[in-house]
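Hey, resending since the last one bounced:
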Amino acid sequence: MAAQGWQLSLAPRLGHRAALVPAIGLISLLQSCSSAGQLVGQPPPDLPLPEGITVAFNHRADRHYTSPISGQRRSGDNLEALLLAAIDAARSEVLVAVQELSLPAVAQALAEQHRRGLRVQVVLENSYSQPWSLLHDAELNPHLRKRRQQLLALADRNGDGQLSAAEQQAGDAVAILQRAGVPLLDDTADGSKGSGLMHSKYLVIDRQRVITGSANFTPSGIHGDPDDPRTRGNVNHLLTLESAALAELFAADFSLMWGDGPGGRNDSRFGIAKQSGPAASVLVGATPVQVLFAPHRRNDPHQGLALIGEQLAAARERVDLALFVFSAQSLTDVIAQLHQRGVALRLLADPGFASRSFSEVLDLLGVALADRHCKLEAGNKPLAQAADGVGIPRLPAGDKLHHKLAVIDNRTVITGSFNWSPSAAHQNDEVLLVIDSPLLAAHFTREIDRLWKGAELGVSDRLERKLNENRRRCGSGVQRAA
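The structure tokens again:
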């Protein structure tokens, strides 16, 4: 069943001839076209935002830019341009902690600020901290092999299928940072094999501004796969928050990971070794913001899944969710209680993760799927009656729904890098934000409204086929021990 909703139609904008219309005539034209003074066919005025906070979405329908990957005009905010502008505006310091940075222009911007004498420091996940141009397909797993092929396609600027030395140098973001001498380390700097994942995604500019959200700084995370013109990038967003107090909290998290920097003592702290504390509260303008840096031990009452659960449990009327990974049974239990209380639910999950055996989306749909060993997840509790309003969005082939997003009662926003999973809570380096702002919530609700149009709700035909094959192979499955 497809979700229904209004459709936004964008008519062509006024062309260059509009400049020939006298000012008084243009004013009359605007007033005659719409009683509100809005030109017919144009998108509605943008929603207001709280002081000190802006948000950008790379798939929004009412903004457009020219993709630097495909050269095509496409809908959405240009998240890469947002990053470049923030880096260029820095005057003293740029701190970067992101799972993957593979956009050459972003690397060039960081390198230029380093050459100007700014303090530029970069932390990456160890899987992505080596120049891809020095790696070989034979030594890579399938995921990293595909990534390397995509970055080869990105670097091949003339599209001749051959990578020149100049193209290779200009197209490898990590190599650009290394050649410029930008200090860089990864989550093995503490002498370990790395944390679960260094999964944070943030910039801190001059201890005054934070940019964070769901997007990695990659072609596939922002614009689309360089080797597949059908894609438009994983569905992502970035927040910009102007607050010295918040920036200091992010800088403190960065400092734990950085230690004394590359080549120093093994004093970097990642994962559980960071000994992350409870959520901290600050005001951004007049907006209350809580920020939690993960991970925490499973018995720690301050851990991220507990914070999310508390926020969900407080819902009175409505919960909207757009999630990449949802595998936390504790949160399903809370949502089940909301369902019993009559709280309206819209939950959209990434199609690739929604039907995996560990997905809590299956529980909410009232079904169970055994894994390849015919085992059911420990503690699995499918609802006796499927929840309404659960499904998957329609996305361009190859793209993922990458938000980690909740909007509660049209005022509380939960977002960040934090997937709704035990790994995010207890293993990975993550950021989790809770923002109390009806103004900001309206922007995220609009994004979920966009994804909701045409979404496939309930048990899809594809999932039904998968369930039937699973029952044929495994019967009812065997529950794993807790």
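The longest strand covers residues 287-294.

Sorry for the duplicate.
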